Each structure stands twice: as C-alpha cells, then as structure tokens.
Structure to design on (447 residues):
C-alpha cells in the first residue's frame, strides 16, 4: 500500500487517499468494467420490471377463455378494471417520475451517486414485491396498486441522473460512447427480458410470480453492488495504481474531484443544445413509453398467445440493443478521426436512428399480416437504437460534471409523454373489445 499522495474530500465529507491503491495483478479485471457491468445490470432490472403491468394486464382485461381452452381461475381475471383504469395505472408511474427527476438530479451533485443508484434499484424492487398482495386483496386492490406505482415512479426519478453521474466518473473520455451505449442498452434489454419472462411466467406459473421474480432479482443485484461499487476510483480498495492513474489522467481533476459549487441553472436553461436534447427526449419517450405499456396488448390482439406475446414483444428491444452497442463503438471510432467533429457525429447518429424508426412506423400502419407487423415493428424499434450514440450520450459532452442534472431536466420533459400516452391510448381504445383479437381492434392503431 503506497503512502497517500494527497487528500481529497468526498461528497460525504470523508477523506480520499488518492495514492492508496493496490497494484495490478496478473489476472486483474479493470474495476471500471466491473462498475459499468453492474450499472448495466441495474438498468436491465429496473426497466424489465416496468413491463410487468403491461404484460399481466392482459389477464386483467381478457374477457374470453384462453386459446388453449383452459378456464381462467385466477382472482385477477375477476377484477373489473377498465381500459381507463389500466391507462391511469401506467400514467401514475410517470407522474412520479415527472415529480422527482429534477430534485434527484440536484441531489446527485451533493450525494454519492453510486449510493443513490443502488438505493433506487433496491427500493423500487422491494415495492414491486408488494404489487401481487395489493392486487389480490379486495380491500386494497386498485387504489393501493396505484399508490405503489406512484411510489416506484418517485423512486426511479433518481435512476438516470445517478446512472449518468456514475458513468462520467468511471468511464474514460475515449470510451464514453461505447461505455454509455452499453449501460443505456440496459434500458432496452430490460424490456426484452421483462416481456419474455413476464409472458412465460404469466402463462405457465401465474401472474404473481412475474412481480416476485423481478423484485427478487433487484435484491440480489443490490448485494453485489453494495460490495463491488464505489463512489470514485480513488476510494476503491482493490483498484490497481495503473488504472486509477489512467482514469485520473484522462478525466482530469475537474471531472473527478467534488466541488461545493452552485449549479449553473441560468447557463443550463439558456443553452440551445439543452433544448435540442429536450425535444429529442420527448420524441424518443413518446414512442418508447407507448410501446413499453401497450406493445404486449398490440401483439395479443394480433392473435398471439400470452407466451408468444412476451417473446415477440421482446424482439424489437433485442435488435435495438445490438444497434445500441454497435453505434457506440462506431461513434467512438468516428470521433477519433480529426476530420469529424463530435457535433457532426452526434447529429448524424440521432438523425439516422429517428429517421429509420419513423419510416418503418409509417409503413407499419399499412400492414395487416401479423408476422409482417412483427418484422416492421422490430426493424423500426431496432434501428432507433442508433440514436443512442447521438443525443443520449451528448449529455456527457455538454457538461460532464452536471450530466446528472441535464438528464434529469431532459427526462422530466420526456416523462410528460409517459404521463399522457397511456391516457391517449385508453381514450382511443375505449370502446374496443379485446375478446375479438382482430387487427381492427389494434390498441395502438385503432381508428
């Protein structure tokens, strides 16, 4: 153990011995990769459980017997929940997000972001374990379930701000696009896994196991995060001296050392690039939240079983994840060339991703074959992953120190789409019967 070179004050007021780190061993695994991997898994778990209601709601609203001829004997099928109630159940989660994101974004500048991120995943998953009890208890049922969803939304307001702050501390500038794209891919792999698991568990085990499985996964993840993730490289007890010096040299003191300074709110809200990110976030969120909450029902009315619905609903996000990772690596490569500016690369990836998604979605409105609908939806959502290396990583370009606040602001406006989208879909499908399960009753495209 080397003697400390100099001392730094952490966000909790404790001293950081920047020189006191262990040396590299032969089988050493870079600690920044461990933190990034756990950050990715945390994003997967949180976003996977967001689709739990979207898949199990098919049981809530189903009026006809299952296609395999079995009788619906679960208590859930006896609930008299209308489309409007289910729409509000989706919307109230995003109301919680809308309320809490900016306050939590500010807290990220004051408290250790790795603790905020870990606490977010743990407590939202614990709340998820309460949903089966709430739904199956007649005295609680709908009202208490809405309260839990609101609570989860409030808790998850810190998810993205703390995630971006951990990213800016633990990633190198030249790795920023691929590291960021990898972590944010968890936002899309999460629904992929969540829809498959939720569909299979609902069809073969029972709807309650959907919530138990995702909640337990979060608790297990937190055990690893608590022991393996640290606020900064200089506080990690087993990081090598070489890796610690590499991160500090690449990022510089301004990015790593906490300063008790004021947040430049005026500069943020008078910056045109910030408003460009707000527009990008709202557009992305409007489509993403619509699919996240209604895509399982969309595939179900295309005459797929609940198990098939879970599998087919996951395909777009699986393809999207591949494009996210690819675009991150490609963006880093392009920005390493002196003749391509960061601004050009970010704008190009954003335009290509959004343009491809729009083209396939316009074509999807004209598709009547169920399997072609799966293909077009998968390609549209999948290609939109290219935009991740554009506007989403741009938060880290504009202001690394305040990336958490920037993402909190842009996502607050994006969350408005999540609030209104389920209510709009519910109003559009008010008089549509799921029992028919035909294309004319498509809850996303009904006329």
């Amino acid at each position: 153990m080397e003697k400390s070179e100099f001392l730094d004050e952490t966000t909790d007021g404790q001293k950081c011995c920047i020189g006191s780190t262990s040396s590299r061993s032969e089988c050493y695994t870079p600690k920044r990769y461990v933190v990034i991997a756990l950050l990715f898994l945390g994003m997967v778990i949180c976003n996977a459980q967001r689709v739990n209601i979207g898949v199990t709601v098919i049981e809530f609203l189903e009026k006809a017997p299952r296609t395999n001829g079995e009788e619906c004997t679960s208590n859930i099928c006896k609930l008299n929940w209308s489309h409007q109630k289910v729409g509000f159940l989706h919307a109230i989660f995003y109301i919680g997000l809308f309320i809490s994101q900016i306050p939590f974004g500010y807290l990220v500048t004051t408290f250790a972001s790795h603790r905020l991120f870990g606490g977010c995943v743990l407590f939202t998953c614990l709340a998820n374990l309460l949903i089966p009890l709430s739904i199956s208890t007649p005295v609680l049922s709908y009202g208490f379930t809405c309260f839990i969803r609101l609570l989860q939304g409030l808790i998850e307001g810190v998810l993205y701000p703390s995630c971006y702050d951990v990213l800016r501390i633990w990633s190198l500038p030249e790795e920023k696009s691929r590291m960021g794209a990898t972590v944010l891919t968890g936002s899309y792999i999460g629904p992929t896994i969540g829809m498959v698991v939720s569909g299979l568990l609902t069809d073969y085990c029972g709807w309650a196991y959907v919530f138990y499985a995702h909640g337990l996964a979060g608790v297990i993840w937190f055990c690893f995060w608590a022991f393996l993730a640290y606020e900064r490289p200089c506080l990690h007890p087993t990081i090598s001296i070489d890796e610690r010096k590499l991160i500090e040299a690449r990022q510089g003191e301004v990015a790593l050392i906490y300063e008790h300074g004021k947040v430049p709110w005026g500069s943020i809200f008078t910056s045109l690039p910030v408003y460009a990110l707000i527009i990008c976030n709202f557009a992305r969120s409007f489509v993403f939240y619509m699919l996240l909450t209604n895509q399982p029902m969309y595939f179900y009315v295309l005459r797929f079983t609940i198990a098939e619905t879970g599998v087919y609903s996951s395909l777009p996000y699986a393809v999207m994840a591949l494009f996210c990772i690819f675009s991150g690596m490609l963006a880093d490569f392009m920005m390493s060339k002196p003749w391509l500016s960061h601004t050009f690369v970010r704008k190009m990836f954003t335009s290509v991703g959004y343009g491809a998604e729009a083209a396939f979605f316009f074509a999807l409105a004209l598709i009547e074959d169920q399997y072609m609908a799966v293909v077009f939806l998968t390609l549209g959502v999948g290609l939109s992953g290219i935009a991740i290396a554009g506007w989403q990583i741009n938060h880290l370009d504009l202001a690394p120190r305040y990336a958490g606040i920037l993402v909190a602001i842009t996502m607050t406006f994006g969350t408005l789409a999540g609030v209104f989208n389920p209510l709009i879909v519910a109003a559009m499908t008010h008089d549509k019967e799921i029992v028919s399960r035909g294309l004319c009753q498509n809850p996303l495209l009904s006329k």
